[in-house]
Each structure stands twice: as structure tokens, then as C-alpha cells.
Amino acid sequence: AQSVAQPEDQVNVAEGNPLTVKCTYSVSGNPYLFWYVQYPNRGLQFLLKYITGDNLVKGSYGFEAEFNKSQTSFHLKKPSALVSDSALYFCAVRSRNSGNTPLVFGKGTRLSVIA
Amino acid sequence: DVKVTQSSRYLVKRTGEKVFLECVQDMDHENMFWYRQDPGLGLRLIYFSYDVKMKEKGDIPEGYSVSREKKERFSLILESASTNQTSMYLCASQTGGYFQETQYFGPGTRLLVL
After folding, report:
1. Which of A33, B31, B36, B112 could form a disulfide with B94 if both were Cys (CB 3.0 to 4.6 A apart)?
2. Residue A47: which residues within 8 A CB-CB, separation 6 or more?
3. Do B102 and A94 count as a contact with CB atoms less than 8 A apart?
4. Do A49 and B100 touch (CB under 8 A)?
């Protein structure tokens, strides 16, 4: 079975400070990993994904994430947070060898960047 | 750019009513999905479809059905709405055959069942 955990419901960070939103996963075999962001009253927007290759993935709006196979993690990071980064962030995973099964999403982490 | 549109942003319905939520995508995607989003529960998959007239149950299909008569349109049907179906409903589409590809989401429909 595939699963993903976002251990923090809420992350608070001061503007200009680095931010990290945590994600750990469980799949059989190798994963495809995604981060999505949801701004208030909007649908989800794609941020970045890990498919293969370089463990450090760069995405939209200055975000990046590092795939760590030994720790089964895919934490989202940004060197300097902006107030406009305040949103709900979702991590998602699927196994590369799970046939037609869809993505499994985490429960989301609400990021609040304080000016 | 991919565009996924949902027929309503907000809906208010009565218990027992039949409710139709429509989703249309303009990128000729094979795969389409319906999720519901609830605080503390994240996104939960209701149904998905890999092709016209095909459907697969997701994690929480009870109380819902779907229809995909045309490739670009995927409808979610609440046969007899209940208050526990009050939620945000999100539709998504994705290129078929390549499951590393990105899902594109619509803006969501916030449904209130009274």
C-alpha cells in the first residue's frame, strides 16, 4: 500500500527565514513524489516533482525539495520565506510499479509566514 | 496552459436532492479524477476514469457515482445528497499512460447540503 505522512498540521515562519515543510512516504519500490500548493479558495497548483535523477528538485516560486531514499522523505524547502507563500501544501506519492493506481495525497500542512 | 473548469464555485442543496458536479478539461487528457477535501483529512479520492465510459472507485465512493460520456467531461453525481457530503470537491485531469505526469486541478466546488 502507498501512503504519505505530513507530520505537521501547521508551520509558522517569519518572513525572510528559511522554511521547511516535511513529508515522508511509504511505497513498494521507487516513488514518484509531488508537491502541490493551495492558495485560499483555489484549486491545487503543481509546485515540483521527483521522478528520477538528481535528488534535489527545483520548482516554482523558488521552492525546492530533496528526495532522501534512506529516510523515505521529500521535504519542501525555501531559503527565504515570503508572506505570499502562506498557503496549504500537499505532498503526494505513487509507486513506479503500481500499475494504474492514482496518487496518494497527504493531509496537508498549513504554512503561515508572518511579516 | 491546461485548463480544468468546474461548473460551480459554490452550491447549496437540500438533503435528498440529486446533485451534479461537472468538470471539463481542454487538454485532451485521458485521466480524470474527483476528490473531496475536508479539513484535517486532506484530499480523498472518490472516483477516477482512464478513458471514456470507464470508471474506477477510489477510496470513498459510497454515496457517489460518476459519468464520462465524452473525453473532456467528467461528472460527479450525488444521488441523494446528505449533510455529510458537505465538502469541497476538486476535479483533476492528467495525461494518460504516464503516471509520473502532473495532475491539473480545477478551482473546486464548495458544496453545502442543508
Report:
1. B31
2. A34, A35, A36, A37, A59, A60, A61, A63, A76, A89
3. no
4. yes
Write down the pLDDT at residue B2.
67
CA-based Rg of chain A, rounded to a whole angstrom?
14
Would you tell me which residues 89-108 of chain A have a C-beta closer than 8 angstroms to some C-beta of chain B? 90, 94, 96, 100, 102-103, 105-108
Closest partner residue to B90 among A43, A96, A103, by Cβ? A43
Cβ–Cβ contacts within 10 Å for residue A33, how many?
25
- DSSP for residue A83: G
How many CB atoms are located within 10 Å of the residue B63 CB? Answer: 14
A39 touches chain B (CB under 8 A): no
H-only helix segments in B40-87: none
Nearest CA to B108 among A34, A43, A63, A24?
A43
pLDDT tens for A1-60 read 889 999 999 999 999 999 999 999 999 888 999 999 999 878 899 999 998 889 999 999
